[in-house]
Specification:
Number of strands: 0
Radius of gyration: 25 Å
Helix content: over 70%
Largest sheet: none
Structural class: mainly alpha
Number of helices: 7
Shape: elongated
């Protein structure tokens, strides 16, 4: 019984420390919790297990404690690699085209009506506003 009380007191102490941290930093605990839960949900979605049975997922998470440090380290490495790759892909999709790509599109526009796609599909008026992703879509669509 004393062990259970000690565990609960330790948990209470951790919660109080978090609350003090939130208050010190001006963070709303409810918003922080909501953000945390959204991030966890996003991870489940990325892993494509967000539609799994809740009991199965909980059992899996409870079993996670049984992995040794080496197994956990390997899982973290795999997860970090995927998260970094997704971040790089997202940044690449947002990156705007440069002079080289603009010149290539201008050459392509002499033969094909690429501006119809630029205006209608991407809602852009200037080549300089195109992202790398949109640039690649245009090349795929109009290159022979």
């Amino acid at each position: 019984m004393k062990d259970k009380i000690a565990v609960l007191e330790e948990k209470l102490m951790k919660v109080n420390l978090k609350l003090r941290k939130y208050n010190r930093e001006g963070i709303n605990p409810r918003k922080a919790r909501a953000k945390h839960l959204i991030e966890i949900g996003a991870l489940l979605e990325i892993a494509e297990i967000d539609q799994e049975d809740k009991g199965m997922l909980l059992g899996y998470f409870l079993n996670l404690k049984n992995y040794n440090a080496e197994e956990r380290k390997k899982m973290k490495i795999v997860g970090d690699i995927l998260l970094n790759q997704r971040k790089e892909d997202r940044e690449q999709r947002r990156k705007l085209i440069g002079e080289k790509e603009i010149q290539e599109l201008l050459e392509l526009s002499k033969e094909k009506n690429i501006f119809e796609t630029i205006v209608n599909d991407f809602k852009k008026k200037l080549l300089e506003e195109l992202t790398i992703k949109e640039y690649r879509i245009i090349l795929d669509k109009y290159s022979d």
